[in-house]
Amino acid sequence: MSSSSAAPTPRRGDKAQAAAAKPPMRDALVAAAFQLFLERGYEQTTVDDIVALAGVGRRSFFRYFPSKEDVVFPDHERCLADMTEFLAAGDDGDEPVGRVCDAARLVLRMYAENPTFSVQRYRLTKKVPGLRAYELSVVWRYERALAEYLRGRFAGRRDGTLRADVIAAAVVAAHNNALRSWLRSDGQGDADTTVDHALGYVRSAFGDPPACPGPGGERPEDVVVVVSRRGAPLWRVVQEIETTLGRD
Amino acid sequence: MSSSSAAPTPRRGDKAQAAAAKPPMRDALVAAAFQLFLERGYEQTTVDDIVALAGVGRRSFFRYFPSKEDVVFPDHERCLADMTEFLAAGDDGDEPVGRVCDAARLVLRMYAENPTFSVQRYRLTKKVPGLRAYELSVVWRYERALAEYLRGRFAGRRDGTLRADVIAAAVVAAHNNALRSWLRSDGQGDADTTVDHALGYVRSAFGDPPACPGPGGERPEDVVVVVSRRGAPLWRVVQEIETTLGRD
DNA sequence: GGGCTGATGGCACTCAGTGCATCATTTGGG
DNA sequence: CCCAAATGATGCACTGAGTGCCATCAGCCC
User: What total of structural domains would you count in chain A?
Assistant: First the structure.
């Protein structure tokens, strides 16, 4: 249920799949938890209820999920690892903002893999304050991963850490805005289009234009940005250009 | 009344009322909590320890603070109310982004009112994961207040909610970046200057230039923004201008 | 005084989360 | 084929946060 629900055959002793170990008990706990959460609410469901329905011991629940909230986000740990790995794999030639936007798309993909599950979870987190708070801490880790990557890429630029933090926050906000609008429509529309549009706004705001029709041979040096005010003195125009480009 | 100040509670502890009888029980609880948090750690301190030191009943703690984490952020509820009031008080003539930046400065002012307290709390939240998560939910409410204000101001603009969410996130990120850098320096430098610089970056990124030398008679209609890529077709340039300006 | 109100304290309870010991299953040699 | 280490599941007892309920005690109005 968590990722690919196609795991009906618990082949024990298969070394090949032991690498990507998929404990069946974990998925059973997630399924039991969501069944109860949906039919009687999150706070009205105790961990004892979940383990009773799943037919396992109470102690086993906390072996797979460090807290009751974690069962609602069963695959975010893996997704976060994927994102950090994706960011670390990029070379220094690509555009930092574009790379961060692509990393955000990884998260969208995880949500889009199981639309019904994602929509159910969205409705749950929307109405339970405790789950909203927990989701914030999850999203915060994504944002920190993006910001840390950008801090590394912006090392040497003036206000590098500031730019990194702001752009990471903007990317996450745009991604969440599009994701929520998609979730609100019960996962009907095209999530990629919505997210691309939102991320395009962020890229345009920070001087990195959205993907051109042509293939990706562009270099960041080709970007021209002018931010000015009619009738402003020349030194103000230059100052704006310097601020926007952020180069020393 | 043997002493100079009329002490209404002669039997209780003789320590808490040295300052004045003005701070009721709430401030005594905050003081006791921070004393214990600093000397033995947050998680190593139970609510029973706090109420024992404050000389009050355990039940009274939860009367003033809905949770143990809340005692670490005793004045954020008031600050959030001040911010929403400030945003609601503005008229429709002022620049939305500038107003939101001013609202963020309100939060900074609250931190700057008690530098030592703020620095202590910063060190605490930096090392205790549970407090970090709680702080996120607090910051999230500020961000939502800013975003809701901007959504109202951007109603009618294309991608109004997207712009509102992204700008609110960027403002909060810039504010936090500056605030943390100030807290990391033990509250020594000038917090206002740092935050002004950070917010100026956000304003410049979103087409709203930082405060000009001249008096504030500017109108947002005077802003001209061009974001393009050398060699891009004309329709792309027009699209970028439309996207950046965000008018229909 | 007598009753009213609001703040407080005490008590018992639920539930999340943890440490520890025990039992079952698997694995891996000899 | 059997024994032993290892891994995983379970039960049990415990801590600590948070809640509901009721008793208590202050001031206060009549």
Answer: 2
Q: A60 with A157, same domain? A: no
Task: Residue B45: give the domain boundaries.
Answer: 16-68
Q: Provide the pLDDT for residue B91.
A: 84
Tell me: do B50 and B90 sit in the same domain. no
Q: What is the pLDDT of residues B124-136, one digit of tens each?
A: 999 999 999 999 9
Q: Are residues A52 and A81 in the same domain?
A: no
> How many Å does it take to go from CA A25 to C1' D14?
26
Which residues of chain B are within 8 Å of residue A178 when distances are taken between CB atoms?
162
Residues of chain B below pLDDT 50: 1-22, 212-223, 246-248
Proximity of residue B59 CB to strand C below 7 A: yes
Looking at residue A226, its pLDDT comes to 55
- Check which CATH number belongs to the domain holding B62 and give it: 1.10.10.60
Round to whole Å and give the CA distance between B50 and A230: 60
Does B216 touch chain A if contact means CB atoms closer than 8 Å?
no
pLDDT value, residue B236: 55
What pLDDT does residue B150 have?
A: 97
- Asked if residues B168 and B161 have their Cβ atoms less than 8 Å apart, the reply is no
Note whether A193 contacts B: Cβ–Cβ < 8 A. Answer: no
Task: Compute the nearest-CA separation of A11 from chain B (Å).
Answer: 39
| CATH at residue A137 | 1.10.357.10
Pair A107, A193 in one domain: yes
| Same-domain status, A57 and A178 | no
Q: Is the CB of B46 under 7 A from strand D?
A: yes
Examine residue A139 and state whether it is found in any structural domain, yes or no.
yes
Let me know whether A118 and A77 are in one domain: yes
- What is the block-wise mean pLDDT of chain A (248 residues), using blocks of 10 residues? 37 37 84 97 98 96 97 96 95 90 96 95 96 97 98 93 98 98 93 95 79 43 51 56 50
CB A64 under 7 Å to nucleic chain C: no
